[in-house]
Design goal:
This protein is of the alpha/beta class. The protein has helices spanning 11-22, 53-67, 127-130, 146-155, 220-227, 262-288, and strands at residues 3-7, 26-31, 70-73, 76-82, 84-89, 93-96, 98-101, 123-124, 138-142, 161-165, 180-182, 186-191, 195-200, 205-207, 210-213, 231-232, 235-236, 249-251. The structure holds flavin-adenine dinucleotide. Flavin-adenine dinucleotide binds at residues 7-13, 30-37, 39-40, 43, 45-46, 75-76, 102-104, 217-218, 253-254, 260-263, 265.
């Protein structure tokens, strides 16, 4: 039986799942439970609804569950495509014929000065993509949780040293013994043409040729880069049917360009779900021939 994994249980992911599960396709939603809906109070601009964000969120999950969608509560740290699409979480690996990224927009606080200016010139959002460029060199990972741990683990075999900078947060993951963990707040990523290091609030300069951003959980942009999706200003670029440039990978909701609204997320989810069904059926037809 063909299967679809949806990352995210907000309006976009739930909407997509209603289509895929009702088409008879095994549907699993993986989510870490941080939907923008949970931060939303009263909603007055969504069709036929006048409750709060958390009420809509719970109703969405309940309905999808009733129809047969399976839920896994976990944090996704990577997505890759080697034959089947592989979704890696902090707890394991899952394989799918198609994936829908419905991860919402990342609201993990203010960007660290230097991040955008030096992106692609030492600043990276993907250790598995760019780690090789820093073999034998000092690198830093900015983050404090499971995602930062996963990025650091990719870098340990390649880099001469890995420093994790938590930017004032308490580490919430247990890092490998070989990793130096510094909790001081970050002032900026330093460098003009290329990254040279990071300046901390206590005046320490941490040498690093590469800086890997892994704040909070892996957001849409980070996951998109790992699987080679086109992004623009942090949004995943999609075709009108919500397919992306990578076959079998679809995106929907706040992580794609346009309004950051429930109505748009639900519409995108319906389109992504419908397109994913067509895609999965087309690969099944090819296999059956
Ligand atoms: C304060 C506030 C008020 C708002 N008020 C309104 C309003 O009145 N009307 C309106 O229409 N819209 C409102 N919005 C916007 C609305 O909430 C969003 O447009 C909508 O929730 C987007 O849906 P989504 O499914 O794209 O993303 P989200 O609802 O954000 O869901 C994202 C999902 O992805 C999951 N996820 C993300 N990364 C990972 C990962 N690495 N691993 C596992 N899971 C992951 C999250 O757990 C979550 O389930 C408001 C937003 C905010 C913040």
């Amino acid at each position: 039986m063909k299967n679809i994994i949806i990352i995210g249980s907000g309006p976009a992911g739930i909407s997509a799942s209603l289509y895929t599960v009702r088409a008879g396709i095994e549907t699993t939603i993986i989510s870490n439970g941080e939907s923008a809906l949970l931060k939303t109070g009263k909603i007055e601009n969504y069709y036929g609804f006048s409750g709060t964000g958390p009420e809509l969120y719970e109703a969405g999950r309940r309905n999808a569950s009733r129809l047969g969608v399976s839920f896994i509560d976990d944090e996704v740290v990577s997505v890759s495509s080697e034959g089947k699409i592989t979704v890696t979480t902090t707890g394991g690996k899952y394989f799918a014929d198609a994936v829908i990224l419905a991860t919402g927009v990342s609201r993990t606080g203010a960007a660290i000065p230097g991040t955008r200016e030096l992106e692609g010139r030492g600043v990276s959002f993907c250790a598995v993509c760019d780690g090789f460029f820093y073999r034998g060199r000092d690198v830093a990972v900015i983050g404090a949780g499971a995602y930062a741990k996963s990025e650091a683990s990719e870098l340990i075999p390649l880099a001469s040293s890995v420093t994790v900078l938590t930017n004032g947060d308490r580490p919430s993951a247990e890092f490998d013994k070989s990793v130096r963990v510094l909790t001081e707040k970050i002032v900026k990523i330093e460098g003009t043409d290329r990254v040279t290091g990071i300046l901390l609030e206590d005046g320490t300069h941490v040498d690093a040729a590469g800086v890997f951003i892994a704040l909070g959980t892996a957001g849409a942009e980070a996951l998109a880069k790992k699987i080679g999706l086109l992004t623009e200003k942090g949004s995943i670029m999609t075709n009108p049917d919500m397919s992306t440039n990578v076959p079998g990978v679809f995106a929907a909701g706040d992580n794609t360009p346009g309004m950051l609204q429930i109505a748009k997320a639900v519409c995108d989810g319906a389109a992504a779900g419908t397109s994913a069904i067509k895609y999965v059926r087309s690969i099944k037809n090819k296999e059956d021939k």
